[in-house]
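Take a look at my tokenised protein here and describe the backbone shape.
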Amino acid sequence: MRRLWLTFAQAVTISVAVLFVLTTLKPEWLKGTAPSSVVEILEAPGAASASAAVAPGSYAEAAQRSMPAVVHIYTTKDVARPRHPLLDDPIFRHFFGERQDNAPPQRASGLGSGVVASPDGFILTNNHVIEAADEIEVALNDGRKFPAKLVGRDPETDLAVLKLEGNGKLPAITFAATDAVEVGDVVLAIGNPFGVGQTVTMGIVSALGRSQLGINTFENYIQTDAAINPGNSGGALVDSHGNLVGINTAIYSRSGGSLGIGFAIPVSIARNVLEQIVSTGEVTRGWIGVEIQEITAELAESFGLPKVDGALIAGVLRGSPAERAGILPGDVLLSVDGTSVHDPRGMLETVAALPPGHEALFRLRRPTGEIELKVQIGRRPTPPAER
């Protein structure tokens, strides 16, 4: 037995030695053995490993968390057919008489996106997505479709709230903190561009507080370079954890496609509008009835102002709360209830946030010096388009 063991050990030793010599001196003789890679390749982990940890640089978890809460919105409405030009031609009317155009109206369809804001079925979207719609249908991410009713809308922020009835609990999105987003943060835009189906695009927050774009009355947009295209309106802008930071609303484009400049309504504004519409069916804002103007360096010099700060009262509406309180054209508004006003947008937002009937203390600058006036806040009139 001992001799057999020694013979086996010697055979193994000789075989290992021969293999080492061949590998070192004549590797081409071993071409028939198992192949080996000449480049070190980093392979993706298996399914078990991938589920345990998210790969660096991947936003799959954020997308999977938020995508079920983003819905597709389909609208239809009646549109009058264009009148045939011959019916207005005097020669045609001379020979054929007055004729009525009795063609039935056309059915126009539109599409957009929305965000499930609560498990109870309240959905946030843009006002321009559902404006003048006769019928609204919502398609969930899992393919189910339900009719939706309009709860309320706010044209001045371009937001609207829909409600799905009797469909159980829905996959609602998680709202991010109001001040959680910063310039440079990675964000994902989720929606239904061009009707191709749910799509996720990635970018960063390019800027905050974008205003004076001429889109809406109240503008405080998040600017992002995440691709936003027609059909994305009303969809979700989420952070790298899948939390809602904004509602995609508009793009800057010369061609109609994405050029890397998109705008989203911050979640703070969307949440305020949602809560007011759900509780009262409308959005109530404060109003004092003045026309305001930005103070430029030229205006500051002509008015003898020490710095370019505040909001210039350019006009006062007759019978308005501002006129009753004694505010005059040419006054410069500095603060409202202790909140400093640096520009017209700040003044508009500060006054709008006050409840009607509240008596606020306005600090103004006049050529004779600074004064303080008490103004009873009125209710902002309903925009003509909403009446």
Remarks:
- The chain has three domains: 65-163, 186-280, 286-386.
